[in-house]
Amino acid sequence: MGRLVTGAENPTVLYVSGGNTQVIAYLQRRYRIFGETIDIAVGNCLDRFARVLKLSNDPSPGYNIEQLAKRGKKFLELPYAVKGMDVSFSGLLSYIEEKAPGLVESGEYTPEDLCFSLQETVFAMLVEITERAMAHCGSQEVMIVGGVGCNERLQQMMEVMAKERGALLYATDERFCIDNGAMIAQAGYLMYKSGQTTPLVDTWCTQRFRTDEVEVTWRD
Amino acid sequence: MAAPMDVSGENVRKFIKQGAEAKVYAENFYGRPCISKERFSKGYRHPTLDKSLTLQRLKAEIRAMSKCRNLGIPVPTLYFVDTSTSTFYMEEIVNSQTVRDYIVSIQTSDPDGAMQKLSPLAEKIGKILSKMHCGKVIHGDLTTSNMLLRGDPSDLDIVLIDFGLSFSEGLAEDKGVDLYVFERALLSTHPNTEELFKVVIEAYKKENVKESADAISKLDEVRMRGRKRTMVG
User: Of B56, B91, B126, which marks where a domain is finished?
Assistant: First the structure.
């Protein structure tokens, strides 16, 4: 889907949403996961922090964090956990969950500052593992997909990283970032075109496919 | 402090490659050929975070390299550290290739016999990692690109490099994650190496039966953490 919308050839993909955080690249008929979270997803981390600050769920907790972060100024150093091409967010979340109420109450940091610091830290981790995967695969294209991919600060940071290494960033907008129906339809269309069909009686839904489980018949 | 120059006073710095966070040069350290690794600042990161990470990693890398040296694990010899430019100078490992290139070349030239041919190498890797973990060094970024094979590949003379994400820790959890990172790097870079990783783990166990058991059970635990995650949203 991302390739269709952006025209990218063979990008390294950062897939970030409420349930998933993965760095993916295509190699020999499979989308292979080069890096991922070893505990919670980045979207989950942001949502849970939004709850600590009692932010509204409308339109989404992540969106509200993004808006607050725009007004944050003071940077709080938070635990930064990159392990090879994997990341870990649970330690960071516990840390900020525990500290946040006190820091806000004492007036040392505003909720805006904390949202800003959280975003700066977790996105830096994501951009770093994406860059590691790109260096590892020799890739010159990068794409962000998934709900958290709508975040403009993440896109901006990725853009800077891409520029610094002479690579290109392809970002999809929210029409495609979060429309699972469109993505499934596009995958189905490609499978059909490659001659892979499933009789209707054998067709059902599963949410549990891992990215690297599916054999890709529609790409070389 | 400026970068050291060679004896003639001429700086002969030659750019070799740019990794994810450092530039690597070949140059001359007072007459000796050497490799320098310069960590550069990342424009996408907040300046405070950037400074702190750069220094932290420079220190981590140097510490782990000297520790490995004491443990008898081959690493490049450290010559000089310049914190003002986040650069350090080390021995050039001449006549070497990465384990990654070696595995690729064997898998390409002899797909059927690759497993058998690569087994001794996997065993040696397991042994080295076990030794390193017993010495409380966690590498943090184990990949086949971060291991060099010096001289004739059949000598299995492995040199570990790239310790920027390393830290000193004896906890089984960290060892388990270190092995997990390596497993993922191996399998995603070299398709069909599941059996090879088993050889690594067997050798890892054999090298230190007592201490490796906990790390291996943590490895299984960390794997499950990844797998149980469903693909929702």
Answer: B91
